[in-house]
Structure formats: structure tokens, C-alpha cells
Design brief:
With 257 residues, this protein is α/β, with parallel strands linked by helices. The protein contains nine helices and six strands, in the order E-H-H-H-E-E-H-E-E-E-H-H-H-H-H. It has a six-stranded mixed sheet, with helices on one face.
């Protein structure tokens, strides 16, 4: 199944405690996400289904608030910025993630062989999620109340692309304990990519995933205060993977580039 950054129980909480519009948007996100279940499992079992075009590093599509993927090409590798912030954020953050894996680990793209990084922005309407579907990245625009645009957060994009790395290497199943470990690996690489890009040491890094997604300033401030627990926000989102991600933070201190 696709690997979503926002888990179902968070969306269910929005349905229970949000206003009528927020409840409707959360329900639509849940229903759409449920229909996508099974696609990633199929791709993992049959890797020949993956796009094997080479040469282009990044291709960004506009889904135009539809659910048909990938959409219309709006920016290719080396092209100038588009007049759409989501397009440019998806392009730039995918590039940073690519550079991180290549520079730090010598890995070129998610498969280690320069597989194109394909992204679709403006998926559905008010879609409260971003995900790796087994072949590409997909980003919703958020509801604008709790969650903002999902292309804005580098750590989220690096987290989701890291699911592709896991898929191409050890192929951890996305359920139970292996699914928790899958999430933990993505948490680690998502945090490290942001830390590397900002040239932070381990002590300077915030070790939060997705805090930039939160649209409400007061809620975002509360999340920032939670950083003293390190990984507290992700333990709350994906409960089982905390210890593995927590164990990493005292071990790493990136040298300044």
C-alpha cells in the first residue's frame, strides 16, 4: 500500500473534532487513501512495473486537483522555476534529497541507478496527505486549516522518498513490526536530510518530522515545544518506531560543509 505521512487515526481525529468542512475533507482523504491501498504492494512484488526512463532526475506533474496520476508535466530537470510554489518546492526538495543520498551515501536516486524522481502536486481537493505510491511522490494541498501544502516540508519529502529506498533495498512489508521499522528508517533519513541541508549538528537539529506542515501558528508553536522529547511528534503519529529513531540522535553530528 502507499506510504502516507499522515496516518489514518490523525485523520479520524479531525473527523471527530473538526468543524463540518474539516470533517468532510478528512473523510475524503481517508476514502481516497483507502482506494489506493494495495498498489504499492503490487509494485513491490513486480519491480518491472517501475518506470525505467533514465537521464532526467526530476519531473514534476500537476494533477490539477484530480486523482488521475501523474497529470500534466509542468517542470523538467534543468528547466526554470514555474509560476507555482508547490511545483518549485517539489522540484527543489526532491533535488536536495537526491543530493543528500548521493553526497553522504553515494546512492544515486532511490534505486541507486538514477531512477527518475517523479512528483505530482495538487492531488485531489484539500487532500491532507503526501505519499510514495511505489513509483512516484504525490502531494496534496492540505485543508488550509490544520495542514498546509505538503510540498513545503523537506523532511516530509525526504521521509517519503526514503520509502522508495527501503522498497528498492530490503523491501520491508508495510504492516506490523516491519511496517514500523519501515517508518523508522524514513524518519531517520527525513531528519538527516533536513539536518544535512541546514548544516546542523545533531544537537542543533530539531529532530521533528512535518512541523512545517502545520497551518495553525499556535499548534505549530506547541509542536516546536515538543522537540525537547526528540521524536515525540513522530512517536505520536507512528507509535511503534520511536526507539530506533531515538537511538540515532546521540550518534550523529554532521560536519559542516
Amino acid at each position: 500500500m502507499p506510504c502516507f505521512i499522515i496516518p489514518p487515526y490523525i485523520l479520524k481525529a479531525l473527523m471527530q473534532h473538526g468543524d463540518a468542512q474539516l470533517r468532510s475533507q478528512a473523510l475524503e482523504t481517508l476514502e481516497l487513501s483507502a482506494r489506493l491501498a494495495g498498489q504499492r504492494m503490487l509494485v513491490t512484488r513486480f519491480p518491472q512495473m517501475l518506470p525505467r526512463e533514465r537521464g532526467e532526475q526530476r519531473t514534476i506533474y500537476d494533477a490539477a486537483h484530480d486523482t488521475l496520476l501523474p497529470g500534466t508535466v509542468v517542470r523538467r530537470e534543468g528547466h526554470p522555476p514555474a509560476g507555482d510554489a508547490a511545483v518549485n518546492e517539489a522540484y527543489d526538495n526532491a533535488g536536495i534529497t537526491y543530493d543528500f543520498f548521493e553526497t553522504v551515501f553515494g546512492r544515486r536516486s532511490v534505486d541507486g541507478d538514477d531512477m527518475r524522481l517523479v512528483s505530482s502536486v495538487h492531488y485531489s481537493k484539500h487532500y491532507d496527505n503526501a505519499f510514495w505510491d511505489g513509483t512516484q511522490m504525490v502531494y496534496g494541498d492540505g485543508d488550509g486549516v490544520v495542514f498546509g501544502t505538503f510540498t513545503h516540508a523537506l523532511d516530509v519529502i525526504a521521509h517519503e522518498l526514503s520509502h522508495g529506498v527501503t522498497q528498492m533495498t530490503c523491501g520491508l512489508a508495510y504492516h506490523g513490526e516491519s511496517g514500523a521499522l519501515n517508518e523508522s528508517v524514513s524518519d531517520v533519513f527525513g531528519s538527516l536530510a533536513k539536518q544535512w541541508h541546514r548544516r546542523h549538528t545533531a544537537d542543533e537539529a530539531d529532530w521533528l518530522i512535518g512541523d512545517d506542515l502545520i497551518a495553525d501558528k499556535e499548534v505549530r508553536q506547541g509542536v516546536t515545544l515538543a522537540q525537547s522529547t526528540r521524536h515525540g511528534i513522530r512517536q505520536h503519529l507512528h507509535g511503534r518506531q520511536g526507539p530506533a529513531a531515538r537511538a540515532l540522535s546521540p550518534l550523529l553530528s554532521w560536519p559542516r560543509r
